[in-house]
Each structure stands twice: as structure tokens, then as C-alpha cells.
Amino acid sequence: MRFARRDNGTSERELRKRCRGLLRELDVQPPLDVHEFCARLAVVRGRPIKLVPYPLWADGPFGLWFKGRTTDFIVYQEHTTKPHQRHIILHEVGHILADHPSDEGADHLCDMLAGPGGEMPEPPDALRCRTAYEEREEREAETVATIILEWASILDAMRLPQSSDAAEGVDAALSDRLGWL
């Protein structure tokens, strides 16, 4: 599955269109569960995605993606809020979907991630590790994460609540709902 082109980047309009198509194809229902989303994406791509919570260093990236021989690994900051973790994971998914190339010279991070027991399941073929959003690829990945989260927020807000009182359910569905859930 090739999600975006590499030449001069992809317009936000095109990214939105592709994200909507992917979300329809994956049939992800609200509320958005990023683990389920990644599992469905892995099936469509024919390549597993393993989500790895890890206590990343404070002055480094919040997340990273590396491509192993058979599996994609998304490592995300273990010590942050669940909504932030969700955004981090979807940002790294954005790199995967856009088929971004890996950074050069980031292999030393694998040793850090292996930990004291060396439990890294396989050595990476490619690794993403950037901490600034000024590069086109970072903006694309951030845009993909934002588009998916916007979609999830809208669908979640439109979802009818489960209630035994039908009138209460209709009232809740038609009233304003503010904020992220």
C-alpha cells in the first residue's frame, strides 16, 4: 500500500482524501482505539505493526518508527497521557503510510531501546527519529495524525450514547458536546 508520493510532498487536501479512504477501508468505528487501528492497518498492509511503550528520554523524541525485516515497530513515550500516546502513535503511522525513507545514522538508538536484557526482537532495517516539525515529512506525518484524530473526534461526537432511556439518548445526541473525549 503506497499512501503518499515522495516527490514534493502531498497536499493537505490529498492527505485528507487518502486518510478518509483508508479509514473507510479499515472500517474503524468510534471510539478510536489506536491498537485496533494499527492491527487492521497491519492486516491490510500484510506486515505486522508492533506498538512498544518505552520510557524515552525527556529531551528526545516522543516516538519513533523503525522497520524491521518483517515487522514495523512504533516506540512511543510510556510516561505521558493516553491522548498524547495516541497522537504519537498516529504520527508514526503517518510516516509508515506516507512511505517516508528512514533517517541515516540513527542505528545507535536500537541499542538504547534493547534495554539491559537485549530484548529487541529483531534488528531494524530502517529507523525514524526526528524531533522537529520543519521538514516536509514531519509535517505530512503530523497532518495524517491530526486528520485521523479529527475524524475520530467527529464520529465520536456523532455516536448515539447507549442509554436505556430513548429520550435521554436523543437529547444527548442532539445537544452540544465540547472537548476531546
TrEMBL record:
It comes from the Bacteria. This is IrrE N-terminal-like domain-containing protein. It comes from Kutzneria kofuensis.
